[in-house]
Amino acid sequence: MKIGVLSLQGDVREHIKSLSDCGVDAQAVNTKKQIDAISALVIPGGESTTIAKLARSFDLFALISDRIKSGMPTYGSCAGMILLSDVVNDAIEGQETFGGIDMVVRRNAFGRQVDSFETDIKFKGITEPAIRAVFIRAPWVESVGANVEVLSEISDASGVKHPVAVRSGHLLATSFHPELTGDNRVHKYFVEVICRELASFK
Ligand code: GLN
Questions:
Q1: pLDDT at site 196
Q2: Structural domains of the chain, with CATH
């Protein structure tokens, strides 16, 4: 099983390490040939507008978007979540996403870089102990379509709950960065629960 980590910008190495720790063959991908050869994809944290622009520049945008929409298991963390979302609030003008998950996310929802924080969260499908979630200028999910399952949510300063992890069939997205904590249970969930259960997965 070969899983690619989209290597245009962002914390690629950390995702490769987390996936390797789960026992899968993970490699950085940034060419059409490499993307054609993978069975699943991870879109790292970083900066969503930069990743989208680079995907356009390298002529990878349509390929990635098509593969995501035609069933390739894909996990996006933070900027990766934004890139998997069909609609983005607080986007820069003309910002594009690969799309695939029927949801609206808000970029930079928790505030500026200095408002980054860590907290313990519950994650449906992953048992105790709680997951230490690192939020770095993170998005949150504002609304989801009928086929999107919320796996985790946290409350904002006013006590309003916002989803921070969602699954839509073969697609997984988290606002936070499990690749930064050394706890690989979210990656394991992606590999064991999402990738392996799909009949099409080779
Ligand atoms: N704020 C970033 C964006 O809009 C995401 C931050 C992150 O990935 N840590 O893409």
A1: 85
A2: 2-195 (3.40.50.880)
